[in-house]
Each structure stands twice: as C-alpha cells, then as structure tokens.
C-alpha cells in the first residue's frame, strides 16, 4: 500500500508493530474477555517476564518485588516494587493497570513497572511502586474497585509516614478511570471534612493558603501528582469512534463499561469521572502538582481526553503529551513491541520527567531507617 494511504500509526510503525496491533485489534473486538484474562494473569505473565528477562541476560529481577494484601470488605491486594524495604521511600508511584476492568493484572505490567522503577532510581535514593491488583469484572462491579483503590492509597500513605507530597498516583486506560474516581472521592471528603476558610470566603486557586488550610484536615490528603496514560474518562460517549490506527473497538468498550457500572448509571460521574462538571470539586480533587496526561492522536479516547484537559486547565495545573500517530496506551505497549531501547523507554522517560518536576530528590539514608513500615 502506498505510504500516503496507510493509517497514521502504520506510517510510523515497524512491520512487527503493525502486525501485532492488527492481531490485538481483531482479538479485542472478537474474543471473549476471559481469554484475555487468562493471558494477562499471574500464571502466564510471570513466566513470560522471566523469558524476556533471560533473553537480555537477566536471570533474577533487578529489584525486589513482593505481594501484599489487606483482608476485609474494603481490603485490597497489590505488588510492592522497592529498592530498600528497610527505608521509607522518597517517592512512591501508586499504579492501577488497564484492561477494560475485565482483564489485565499487575503481574503483566511488571516489566513496565520494573523499567519505570529503574528510571526513577536514577533520580531518587529509594523510589518505590505499589501496583494495585483490583478485582476484575464480573467478579465484582462498581464501587468495589474504587474502594480497593482508596484502600491502596491509604497503604501507600502509611508507607511514606502520611506525607502525600511523596505520592504520585498513576494508571492507564481503566486504571486511569479508577484513579480519577478516587481523586473525586477524596475531593468530596476534603470538601466536607476540611476546615472552612476562616473568613467564610471561597478558597483561592490551587496552591494558595486557603486551599492548603482546607486540605490539611482531610483524612485522605490528595497526592502530589497524577500521571495518566490514555485514561478512559467516560465509560460511554458519542465521541468514542473507531480509528484506522487504534486497536480499541468502541462497541466492545461500551460492553465492558456497562458490566463495570453494574446497577449504577454510566452517566453518573462517580462511575464515569469525565462527566463531572463541578469545577469546585475538581479543584478539591486535584493534586497539588496537578496532572500529566499522555495519549495518542489516533486513539478512540483522544477527543474525550482533550475535553478533560480543557476542563482541568480551568482549575489546576495540567501538562500533556500528545503522540502524533500514536495509539492507546502506547508507552506501555511500546515497551513490549519496540526493538530499539530509545523507543521502548521514550514514554516512560516522559512520565519520569513529569515526576521529577513535581517531586524533588530527598536523601532517605537516615529518614525512616529505624522506623517500622506498616505496609
């Protein structure tokens, strides 16, 4: 096919990348999600990770990781990736994976997260990542996953001795939905539990003393930064349209969205956070360092992501990176598909750069050395 007749993604992709994305596109639209659930599960993902590591001469993980769980009706599970468990981390990435709520696991994302941790270790003394292993649909539906996300955040908050300025919440696709829902839930709690402005006036813009006074009393203070990769901002939207380049299929996405919502309406912003138009609530919900959102120009979610960017820019700090010809969650996908190191890490390096702008390096050589971790 002539170059000018190829889709924007194919124009920039290798033959291998093009072939794999075509296969994924077909599978996403036609296969039962249970097939994907098995493929992305722990018992397939871990051997796959070990195989890919062995190919590059690594026979053990470059950094330790461990599984953790908290039982109870609002418990949660996840994976800690950390350089030194005896010291408190100077930055924690709290990550929620994608997969349409119906498939995917933190174990499949381990290579991506281990690579991110290696980049963070170049700039921080003791970085850590906590990857949430939330319950998939149809085993549970909304709001269970949001409760689990909130529970995981509190675990991370304990790990940094209650200092939210060391926390970056992050996620891709459906994981981005969960992080946005969690932030809005925190915003609601911040608005109701915080001390009002002593003058009885509305608080000022983000970063002002009035906002900090209100947030200081919150039981769940917001994180320092939110980093999102191709977030699924609205479960169902007329702006969701298939493209020649992207592997997502909007009809399949809507089916997943309806299953996740369960008895809740998909037009409820608690389920579909991109629908929230309350700018005061967004101001309460926004991290102090704002948002960094990366997405592809050719993905199904692009119009809604751009709408969210416009909305957020009216009440908080927002930076974004739009990959021309890019498709859904390319920083994650490229790590598995691209052969050149520069291309594999390009997306992760942009995420790391955003984190560096918000969280300064602090020495943790003595901080927390003799304190017991409660995570």
UniProtKB/TrEMBL annotation:
UniProt-listed SUPFAM superfamilies: alpha/beta-Hydrolases
Location of the region described as Disordered in the Swiss-Prot/TrEMBL record: 194-222
Keyword terms, alphabetized: Hydrolase
GO function term, MF aspect, one: hydrolase activity
Top-level taxonomic group: Eukaryota
Gene3D superfamilies found in the cross-reference section: alpha/beta hydrolase (3.40.50.1820)
Positions of the Alpha/beta hydrolase fold-3 domain: 94-330
Protein name (record): Putative steryl acetyl hydrolase mug81
Taxonomic source organism: Colletotrichum sidae
């Amino acid at each position: 096919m002539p170059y000018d007749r190829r889709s924007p993604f194919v124009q920039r992709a290798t033959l291998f990348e093009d072939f794999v994305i075509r296969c994924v596109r077909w599978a996403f639209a036609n296969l039962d999600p249970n097939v994907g659930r098995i493929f992305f599960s722990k018992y397939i993902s871990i051997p796959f990770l070990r195989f890919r590591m062995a190919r590059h001469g690594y026979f053990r993980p470059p950094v330790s990781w461990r599984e953790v769980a908290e039982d109870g009706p609002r418990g949660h599970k996840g994976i800690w990736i950390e350089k030194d468990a005896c010291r408190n981390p100077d930055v924690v990435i709290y990550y929620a994976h994608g997969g349409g709520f119906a498939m995917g696991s933190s174990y499949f994302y381990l290579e991506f997260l281990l690579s991110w941790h290696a980049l963070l270790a170049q700039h921080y003394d003791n970085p850590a990542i906590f990857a949430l292993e939330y319950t998939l649909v149809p085993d549970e539906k909304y709001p269970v996953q949001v409760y689990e996300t909130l529970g995981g955040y509190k675990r991370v908050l304990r790990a940094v001795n209650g200092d939210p300025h060391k926390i970056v919440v992050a996620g891709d696709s459906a994981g981005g939905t969960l992080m946005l829902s969690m932030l809005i839930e925190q915003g609601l709690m911040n608005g109701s539990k915080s001390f009002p402005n002593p003058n009885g006036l509305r608080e000022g813009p983000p970063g002002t003393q009035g906002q900090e006074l209100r947030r200081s009393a919150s039981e769940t203070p917001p994180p320092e930064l939110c980093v999102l990769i191709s977030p699924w901002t609205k479960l169902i939207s007329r702006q969701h349209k298939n493209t020649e380049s992207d592997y997502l299929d909007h009809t399949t996405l809507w089916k997943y969205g309806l299953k996740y919502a369960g008895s809740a309406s998909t037009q409820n912003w608690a389920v579909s956070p991109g629908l929230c138009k309350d700018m005061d609530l967004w101001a309460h919900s926004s991290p102090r360092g704002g948002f960094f959102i990366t997405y592809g120009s050719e993905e199904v979610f692009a119009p809604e992501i751009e709408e969210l960017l416009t909305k957020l820019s009216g009440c908080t700090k927002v930076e974004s990176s739009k990959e021309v010809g890019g498709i859904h969650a390319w920083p994650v996908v490229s790590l598995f598909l691209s052969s050149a190191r520069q291309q594999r890490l390009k997306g992760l390096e942009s995420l790391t750069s955003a984190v560096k702008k918000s969280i300064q390096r602090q020495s943790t050589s003595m901080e927390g050395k003799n304190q017991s971790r409660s995570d």
